[in-house]
Structures are given as structure tokens and as C-alpha cells.
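Hi W., the adenosine monophosphate complex you wanted:
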Amino acid sequence: MILLSKISEIRSLVQEWRQKGESVGLVPTMGYLHEGHLSLMRCAQKECDRIVTSIFVNPMQFGPNEDLDNYPRSLERDRELAEKEGVDALFCPQDGEMYGSNYQTTVRVQKLSQGLCGADRPGHFDGVATVITKLFNIITPDAAIFGEKDFQQLALIRQLTLDLNFDIRIIGHPIVREADGLAMSSRNKYLSIEDRKIATCMYTALQKARVLYREKGEGMPSDEIEKLAKATIEANPQCAVEYTKVVHQLTLQSMEKVTDDSVLTLAMKVSGNVRLIDNGFLAL
Ligand code: AMP
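Structure:
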């Protein structure tokens, strides 16, 4: 595996592969790799001849009071893990390589960047859309793999790929969970031992919501599901709900009534500072 930090270097490498007729898969990450990321790499390997994983903690997608400076980083460990998964190139640019001193351009996916995490993190999805557009232009992959854990992000990337005519196949990968149901996340590292146990409440909320939907069936009011999820999470005094919303899987618009297209989306803060998200279809 080759480690590259310059845009010109990764471009040349991809060009070499292309000349040999090889296809290229991209797995964008912010590093501190876990099994969720690794499963995306395995998926990329099935789809493409060559795999690029990017590790870039994108400053543009962090708000002023967010965890940019504290975001966990561990390049040596990431390097070993990616190599074991058969990644061909790890692209780890510095901030200045991606955003020059006169940088001015932002990509915005108008509707899908609003609501849910977009409401709690203003500007976040502009940062995501911009960096993904740049990575698509730099690496020109045939396919790019994203986790369903970041459901809104995946929907937004599908839309920007369509809107900006990228000839890239966007592949969504199911959420990888810990044994107790907590969705894997680099941010789980911030949780104290006590909070780590409690954090499973989002998965419990999702499972309870699924049981209720199974009992009541299509057409039941979404707010019953949303209230149940909120109460389940907030039964733990350390947990504050940011949102529990039933949305349509494609538009991410709120739904008054639940259908088999409904996804329950969840966000909470644990002990005031660790922000975690989860989601899942209500129909299983
Ligand atoms: P991040 O490093 O958090 O920006 O995530 C990089 C990619 O990994 C994104 O496409 C995420 O959706 C995906 N990802 C993160 N956690 C998981 C997980 N638990 N299961 C599946 N995909 C994940």
C-alpha cells in the first residue's frame, strides 16, 4: 500500500491504473478506522480492481464549537488496518493541500442539507458536499462506498452525483454495529465506560420502534414512533435527544404516517458533548 499526501501524486497513480484498464473504488473517511470503515473497504474490493481510501478530517464540515481539534487521529494504526484490507493507496492530504489560501468555493445540496443533522450542525453538509466533490474530481473513481450510518450524507451524495453528472456509482453499505447494537463510530472513543453502556439506548429505541410498527402497521402516526424513541433515549438522564424523526428514505422529508419507506433517524448528545447518530428502516 502506498501513502500519498499530494493531489498530483494520487492523480498520477490513478492514471497509471486507468492505462492498464483497472477500475478504481474510493472509500472516503476521516480516519481512526474501525470495523465500519473496514467493511466499506471490503465492499470496494468486490466492486473494483484498485482501492483508494482517503483520510482527511475535513475542517470545512466542522462548526466553530465542534470537535475538529479533538477528533481522534491515529495514522499509524489506520495505515496498518487499511493495508491488511488490501487498500492500494491511502490518500492523506494536509488541510492546505485541499484548501489553498485563496480557497473560495462551496458546494451545497439545497434541500437535503437542511433538517435533521443539517439543523443541528449549520454548514456541516456544505462542507461534506464540497470535500466529496473535490475527492471525486481528484480521484475520479468508478465507484465510491459510503455507510448508511450517515443516512443523510449518503442521500446528499447520491443527489450531488446526479446533479453534477459524476460518472460514479454510489454504493451504500449497511451499518456495522458493536455486539450490543451501538453503531460503530470514531466518536464512540469519547464515551466514558458508563456512557458507553448507556449509548446503546439509540439502538434500543430503534428496536422498540420496529416492534411498535409491526404491531400497528402501515399508516400509523409517525409521532407515536418519534415519542417512543425520544422517551426510550431520555429515560437515561445523561442523554439529550437532538431529534427522533420518521422520514422518507429518499426525500428525507418528515412523514405524518409510517410506511415501509420510513426510516427512523436519531441523534443525541451524551453527557452534554458526545454527539451520536443512528437510523434504520422501521419495516424489517
Ligand atoms: P467517517 O470517518 O466517520 O467520516 O466515516 C467514513 C465512512 O464510513 C462514511 O461513509 C460513514 O458512513 C462510514 N461509516 C462510519 N461508521 C460506520 C458504521 N458503523 N457502519 C457502516 N459505515 C460506517
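Residues 29-30, 36-37, 40, 146-147, 149-150, 173, 175-176, 183-186 surround adenosine monophosphate (CB under 6 Å).

W.
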